[in-house]
Amino acid sequence: MDTRIEHDMLGEKVLPSSVYWGIHTQRAIENFSLSGRRVSLSLIRAIAMVKKACAKANSDLGYLAPEKAQVIMAACEEIVAGELQGHFPVDALQGGAGTSTHMNVNEVLANRGLEMMGHAKGDYKELHPLDDVNLHQSTNDVYPTAVKVAAIIQLRSLSAGIAELQGALQRKEKEFASIVKLGRTEMQDAVPLTLGAEFSGWAEAIGRDRWRTFKCEERLRVVNMGGTAVGTGIGAPRDYIFLVIEKLREVTGLGLSRAENVVGETANADVFVEVSGILKAHAVDILKVANDLRLMNMLGEIKLPAVQAGSSIMPGKVNPVVLEAAVQAALKVFANDMLVTEAASRGTGQIVEFMPLLADALLGSLELLSNTSVMLVRHIDGVTADESRCRYYFDRSRTIITAFLPVVGYDRCNELLKEFDAAEEENLRAFLTARLGVETVDKVLSPHNLVGLGYRK
Hints:
This protein has 457 residues and is mainly α. The protein has 17 helices and eight strands. The strands form four sheets. Strands 1-2 form a two-stranded antiparallel ribbon. It has a two-stranded antiparallel sheet with strand order 3-4. Helix 2 packs across helix 4, helix 3 packs across helix 4 and helix 6 packs antiparallel against helix 9 (270-299).
């Protein structure tokens, strides 16, 4: 195997000639063998966008030679397009506030740029990962900015997915609008409503998630780019600091702005906690919907699409596996929210040392929830109702007497229930029809009346 030797302040390392990463990345590979998961490619692409903006700003201001800027930007575009993915091997969990990931990108850009220029990888006197690719930058402004860029991009995808999920629930709301059924509270029969109304309640909750997620982008638009190490901009010229944010807006197409207090934006990660909380709220609603659907499927009021065999020993068993997967996704988002909270709270001074954990958890939740939305839309579209089963439970439940309170009064309702019990009958609706008449019972227990927001005199 062909190799090359690279040096740093700690000594030297032998690397395969074929890889684009360098000695800093190699040390990170050896130091951080933790999760077995690589850094999210959405974050890698976002860092490449930031690097492209920095190269453009430095080139326009004359700090970076045009030919160097050109190859750096070209390499950035390759990464954004999904190329070079095999050259980002660093573990998602790492020390150093993201420095290892940042240096991995710096080295890949430098070595790919060298290749474009006709030089050998590692020939850093021609294009240096720090002096050129990282010119006027620090991990402490590049990394948090990139996390925000990646999160905004994923938030937009999630928001679209949530809209699709809301639409699927609303379609079922209309389809099931005329099917009367029992409501349930505290795992007991409650007063009646329609199956469509039940789906409408879920659609409303998911609609709130859609709005929260859409507005959530605003929390992430303020970045500390140009602040370098601690937010003071040390080591970077003032004209670059003001220009780089404009270039970043051009590269990303996002409405980003530089923080008024860059020191504060560098030292604190509370905004990520806020966003994670909104994601957790959506996960709560996902879990609630999934559990309710599982219960209704067990009762036979609805039938879920059969997607795979449910048992290795029980023939014919089909389980609600898609909904179980959605529940697990929601629980993972809950756990990720805790990790975001802990990571943000443990920053010290002017740095949040545990940004890699925060980024992995936050971006992981975004990806997980987006995938969950796609999965649930397909599944919910295939849900069917068993109207006869809904009617069976409905007709036999004592709770439907509540709907007759405005018609005959509380005492008469009690008398009717006593008569029903004494008669040892099963079908309360039929019993009430015999006592109160078909017209009265059909009107009171009609789908329109049951969900009409109160009774009409």
